[in-house]
């Protein structure tokens, strides 16, 4: 799909898929380390079968959680992520050989834009994944995404800070959130008082047999 | 996935996806005509957006119903259908030029086995759909499906009579049913007193905001 962006040209549809949020609103930990990419928010992913991102046929169990997870890649040609999702480093890059959390088989299998103030040469993998490092606003990153994968949807992959930047810029069309029934108490919030979702989005919510509540956010028709 | 079939060799995983059933248990009408493939059970598909079978990016609305519909093609390499799903004719085929309900762009885009007592030459389409007409038991049809698309899952596409045949033969691994809140009163039932699902399946059920209840059936571990 493409989306008519009011006041400008057509841009790709922008989606958030399968973002985990705790009951108290946290979507990631504060303290991320190489051994623990989610930091102290690791409880968010307990019981999550990541294989379902590539389709329900890739997991042993046909569950509602897995079915919803399978939305992850549908029609997506490129992901945009924050630097913290790519790695734990901050500041200028060093020659440490880091190629992301995922080894030589990153699950994306598409171009990925990593938002960072420190641009560098792309890192490419045999399975189609290629990390492009870009110092850009959300709108600029979207324009680059459309160049990298014309005619496809764009996934905003997180973490919560980058999702919030796209929300603030009013550049998110749909979101699929998974509200996990755990209380984290500290970490990075998805929403932080700066956005009132009900003004911009229609939100459906269903609690699955696992106890996780899934929310689907759709942009309201613009007047 | 492949499934260990007790007492025999490995066979493909067999799935039913997105099968509509009325509150009173009917999955198709009795009286099917060229103008009305579902017969008097047309109310089952009201409000259904068929484009979602090819992915959530193909529909305008991110809804739970559309998300679940997108399971349809995931990992599927071949469909097996009853003759009534292919066309309204009965008995020996005539030279009437019938190529299915779908025109020159059938949505399957894979081989399709049509179960019929009247075999005939395959009918092929440019988009990858090819109808193969086979007089076979469910187990024989599955063996042929595995030849046509090795290593992929098999979808049993309906109608209800053919799904029930595979259930009776204990050859269904998972089912996704959509219970539509309408009362049809007459037609073809999915279950007809011959099978007790709870003996063989774990069943999760969730009612979506649309009012449709989705059921996911998973085969219980075999002792």
List keywords for this structure.
223 residues; homodimer; Dihydrofolate Reductase, subunit A; globular
Mind explaining what this structure looks like?
The structure is a homodimer of 223-residue chains. By secondary structure, chain A is an alpha/beta fold. Chain A has a domain at 2-30 and 37-77 and 154-219: Dihydrofolate Reductase, subunit A. Helix content of chain A is 15%, strand content 29%. Chain A is built from 5 helices and 13 strands. The first copy, chain A, has helices spanning 64-69, 83-86, 138-148, 160-168, 197-200; strands at residues 2-3, 11-12, 14-22, 26-28, 76-82, 111-115, 123-124, 130-134, 153-158, 174-180, 188-189, 201-207, 213-219. Chain A has a 9-stranded mixed β-sheet. Chain A has a two-stranded antiparallel sheet with strand order 1-2. Chain A has a two-stranded antiparallel ribbon with strand order 4-11. The longest helix of chain A has 11 residues, at 138-148. The first copy, chain A, is globular. Chain A starts with a strand and ends with a strand. Chain A binds chain B through residues 1, 13, 15, 55-58, 60-64, 67-68, 70-71, 74-76, 152-153, 174, 176, 204-209, 214, 216-218, and chain B through 1, 13, 15, 55-58, 60-64, 67-68, 70-71, 74-76, 152-153, 174, 176, 204-209, 214, 216-218.
